[in-house]
């Protein structure tokens, strides 16, 4: 499925953040959203998943205007935005099992834990994780559930060198499996390796 915007405009309190913005990430494509701090990348991604509402224009999902409250939209779109939060008293592995169950997924949670390097932290509670480990939990949360669209806000943040290498290959694999990816990033290497197109705010 595809995700994008058509002629999208958004402002905070009358101050424009972006205007006249149009792009679509088709299945198997990755679109990178670029721009300086404060240019509107997170805001745009929040509009894409329905956490903010455009002033005008359209969020386009699977070729039509999106209804973010629809089950089909929520089932298709896995996202990691800048406001990820976790139950403080539910362990890492329990979070992932819960998410997989909620989405009726048969994903191998142990394999995802291993892939993101959290096997040894599986029984820890989120407040005891390092910031990089917490970010890895957020990424794992996207990969234990079915998805045809992936929306990621600076997925490289807080990852060490090995983590960034893993992320690059994981996003390429997502594309290869037909997932449409929209990601904001300040990591030029990641953008060059993964993005089919860029949108600069
Ligand atoms: N809730 C809010 N109310 C008012 N203004 C906001 C709000 N959230 C963000 N802004 C403003 O909107 C603009 C875009 O912010 P946004 O977080 O989307 O930028 P960004 O490109 O993601 O930045 P960064 O690279 O630092 O993550 C900024 O000027 C910011 O101050």
TrEMBL record:
Keyword terms, alphabetized: ATP-binding, Nucleotide-binding, Transport
Molecular functions per Gene Ontology: ATP binding; ATP hydrolysis activity
Pfam short name (any one): ABC_tran
Statement: the UniProt record of this protein carries the keyword tRNA processing: no
InterPro entries: AAA+_ATPase (IPR003593), ABC_transporter-like_ATP-bd (IPR003439), P-loop_NTPase (IPR027417)
Domain ABC transporter, residue spans: 3-201
SUPFAM superfamilies registered for this protein in UniProt: P-loop containing nucleoside triphosphate hydrolases
Family under the similarity heading: Belongs to the ABC transporter superfamily.
Listed name of the protein: ABC transporter
């Amino acid at each position: 499925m595809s995700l994008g915007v058509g002629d999208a405009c958004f402002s905070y309190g009358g101050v424009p953040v972006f205007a006249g913005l149009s792009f679509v990430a088709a299945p198997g494509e990755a679109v990178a959203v670029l721009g300086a701090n404060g240019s509107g990348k997170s805001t745009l991604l929040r509009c894409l998943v329905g956490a903010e509402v455009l002033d005008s224009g359209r969020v386009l999902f699977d070729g039509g205007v999106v209804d973010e409250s629809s089950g089909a939209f929520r089932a298709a779109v896995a996202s990691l935005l800048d406001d990820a939060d976790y139950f403080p008293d539910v362990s890492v592995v329990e979070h992932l099992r819960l998410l997989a169950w909620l989405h009726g997924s048969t994903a191998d949670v142990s394999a995802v834990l291993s892939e993101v390097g959290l096997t040894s932290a599986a029984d820890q509670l989120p407040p005891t994780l390092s910031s990089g480990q917490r970010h890895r939990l957020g990424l794992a949360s996207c990969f234990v559930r079915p998805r045809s669209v992936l929306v990621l806000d600076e997925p490289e943040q807080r990852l060490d060198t090995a983590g960034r290498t893993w992320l690059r290959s994981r996003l390429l694999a997502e594309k290869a499996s037909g997932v449409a990816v929209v990601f904001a990033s300040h990591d030029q290497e990641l953008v060059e390796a993964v993005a089919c197109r860029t949108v600069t705010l």
